[in-house]
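User: Hi! I'm a student and our assignment asks us to look at how structure tokens line up with a sequence. Could you show me two examples?

Assistant: Happy to help. In each example below, the sequence comes first and the structure tokens follow. Example one:
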Amino acid sequence: MSGTPVTLNMSAPTRGARGKPPRHFVDLTPEQRVEAVTALGEKPFRAKQLATHYFTHLTSDPAEMTDLPKASRDTLAAELFPPLLTAARTLQADGGTTVKTLWHLFDGAKVESVLMRYPNRSTLCVSSQAGCGMACPFCATGQLGLTRNLSTAEIVEQVRAAARSLADGEIPGGPTRLSNLVFMGMGEPLANYKAVMETVRRLVAPAPDGLGMSARNITVSTVGLVPAIEKLTNEGIPVTLAVSMHAPDDELRDTLVPVNTRWSVDQTLDAAYRYFQVTGRRVSIEYALIRDMNDHAWRADMLGEKLNARGKGWVHCNPIPLNPTPGSIWTASDPAVEAEFVARLRAHGIPTTIRDTRGSDIDGACGQLAADEEG
């Protein structure tokens, strides 16, 4: 595969071009960070100090960098930590353990992240694009169209903000660490391949050069960009791959996931299976259950058969009760239909778990807050 990002020309509109985010410390490799601080007249070791503040202490506030001379810290912060995200709205659910944030980016673009604390882990769902170009008709973000890709720093800043909130004990349950990350917010992660993979590298790099997270606790989702899945297969970073299927047959999936007209169900599943073969990492199959649309028992059988045709033990299926958007014709399946769908998959030996639908009372589906602001 070439090193160029995957580009797509889908039917959803692309908003007007916006400016490039200012250079941020996170966008730089450790070597480039040294070059950046020395270019500002500082000693090379300042780069490590700044990395420690950002990735270990989770701060970019010069007032907290007390081991740096005041004149130096103000200059370094101004040059290397430009503000990229501003929290515009914050909504809470589940007793404060689910927090959804609408961020305004430096150019006015809007993205969302959702922090979810569970008894044994804390998970952040991040956005990788402002809007999305995949045009899935049941998705709030898909109806916004694509504004632009996020930079590495804009994605990592979502992570840092959540990690700092957890470390400071702002989420009920006392101080804790961010353990899991899912690229399931706004946007198609593999359509912003370079920035997403650079983000993963920052997250898994050991302190002080990164957050020291486990790659196995990071999930990268895709609607099925086959060339990018193949590229991810060869990265050598054992993230979890999640494929949003939503239909096992091309006829329906062409409508629900328009990119399927380019890469079919079978091509997508073949690429996902290759990912498992090379990495040994079990693939997640995401399936939004939509009433009277894709929740038929025979479709569960078809999905189970297609998954088993490629091998055993390589997937885990996550049916997701659809979180409907206001005014949408799409709605969640009847609970009895959902139960039958799950039972059929399990009868085929497919490990199946209904996805937790946290945040439904705070417009939990990513894109809803941004859509509200867009009117």
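Example two works the same way, sequence first and then tokens:
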Amino acid sequence: MRMRRKRNLEPRMEACAALLIARGKPCKNLKEAAETFRALTDYAALFGNEAPVELEVGCGNGKFIAELAVRAPQRNYIAVEQCTNVILTAMERVRAERIPNVRFLNVAAEILPCYIPERSVTRIYLNFSTPLPEAGREKQRLTSDRFLAIYKRLLVPGGQIVQKTDSEAFFEYSLRKFGENGFAVTDVTRDLHHSAYAAENIITEYEANFSAKGMPIYRAVAVLKEE
């Protein structure tokens, strides 16, 4: 079902403009943008400091990134979400709570290198990415070879990907792909809410719904090996 366009979307987006780095496709198509367009973010100018930068790909309504940014004000965060209808909720949350260390990219993950400098991100969060189990959609999975190649360009040596998912099949696929693409996998748990990592976990609304139904949450950290 297609999501209904939010009322007064454009005026509300404009009200949050100070939080938005970029929006939409800068070129005719994603392939052209990925190959030719560059508008690399100056973190110091954007945030007013030299703090480490972390990235969430697929930020949804922003609950995770907002709470994370409040917990760790000594770091800066960029939240990525392709759907304008969805990212608006996240931006309005951050604006209302006056959280100073979060900015947003309303773009497809395929073109992150257009805006994020290489080897500049210390950690990437993938929270409940769509599993896309159909064989013909593997390249669209956010832990496929295609996307892991992008993350490797953005991460500093020793940088991390932190993944959470409710899909066991997608989790096992991701673990395999991490290993095949130069990442060392650590901190694996197949029942996050009953693990040693539960105390520090930020529970998203999506996560709470699945956990309430008795479904386990899977989590792992993939560390980029230094070449």
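Here is something you could point out in your write-up. The two ends are 45 Å apart (CA to CA).
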